[in-house]
Amino acid sequence: MKILTTVATALILNVGLGAAVVNAQYPGYESRRYYNNSTWRAEQVVRAAYRDILGREPDRSGLHQYVDAMVNRGWSETDVRRSLRQSPEFYQRSGSRYGYGSGYGYGYRDQASEVVRRAYLGVLGREPDAVGMREYRTRVVRDGWSERDVRRALQASYEYRRTSYEYRRY
Questions:
Q1: Which domain holds residue 52?
Q2: Using one digit for the tens of pLDDT, what is the confidence trace for 59-77?
Q3: Distance between CA atoms of 60 and 39, rounded to whole angstroms?
Q4: Alpha carbons 157 and 22: distance in angstroms, whole number
Q5: d(CA 31, CA 62)
Q6: Whole-angstrom Cα distance, residue 42 to residue 70?
Q7: How many folded domains does the chain comprise?
């Protein structure tokens, strides 16, 4: 019985010591252990938004602020992107002091048009019509939609459902 008690005590101490060593070598490990899936997903969304809009990885405080907003205050990816586009850093990079569409600098309209064009070609297999181009380009510029968002909207359209149904029928 003494041997069993000694082994159990050694295991308990070893596990405790092992956790202490890991925490000493990797600060912040304890908090990462309890990372849940929604927090991880929010962090990925924030990192992608920073790269797309500001062209860099987020700093620690910015990452924490936006992840907290998504997880605890119900912010969406669109909210995060809109907030980044209204930040002083974005205005400084784009050369404008105004919000939304005015703050994108020369050539952004062409970039938004290209995003819409690629989405149309990929989903519907055709060039965008004038109304579709205007509507989706406005979403890209004003609401911060990505090409993925445009593709999702096109896949929810009547035209996509109709053409995919006709294609499956034959």
A1: 35-105
A2: 998 899 999 999 998 988 8
A3: 15
A4: 52
A5: 18
A6: 6
A7: 3
